[in-house]
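Morning run. Coffee first, then this:
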Amino acid sequence: MGWSFSKNNNAKLRLKPFASAALLMIAITWGTASYAQEKASASDEQVGERLNFIENALYSGQPRAKTWWYGWISGYSASAAVMGGLAAGHWNDTKLDPATGLKVQDREFAEDMLVGSATFALGVAGLLIDPFVPAYGPNRLRAMPEGTPEERRLKLEQAEVLLRECAKREKDGRGLVTHLLNLGVNAAAGLVTVWAFDRPWSDGLMTFATGEAVSLLNIFSQPRRAMHDLNNYEVKYQGKRGAYINPGGIPGFQWAPRPGGFSLRFSF
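And here it is:
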């Protein structure tokens, strides 16, 4: 009798996680179905209002996104080319050995340029492999027709998907994986400087620090407009709990006089 009681209790305990998971799935399905039903029953005017919100958000954020993406691709590409050329041009440099007075190879500058060129080339590859969706994604909407209520409803569905793609790309661009990848590349560059070229650890640390500084500038200068716009859209139209976020003003330098000088700030 005692064994039967224990067995039933164990069965109940095993069922609890499954019951919780089932309830969670039911809640998610019900919420998704409710939103889909609500969107399907929205009037053409409401569909147009939501579509205008997303289009204005994406089109307003696109110039800054293009400046960031194309700017970093151009900067990385130019740096890789210039540093590669300098590495080739100075590879056979020599200097006088103060101990012997004889000429010996002096490749430290060329080695630094070679490592830097390879690092920047990897930066270009990363930006091309994982392109910045907010820079080119809005062009998809411009090509879609919206002359009828059905076309506008379909375009709204695609606009919502695109806004989420843009927000996800911005979030991933500042996420832990991106930081770890940059750390790995810059650490590898430092180790190559030390081990492959037989240089002091201080040189390797300088290579790592320089590369990491550029990587952090790339990450934290990345626009976040789509993340804020998605939050605002969900708060305004989908019942999300949260505060409405100001997408931000025009990026650029701002200065103001202060006692004994002035302050300078760059916003992005």
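The longest strand covers residues 252-258. Good start to the day.
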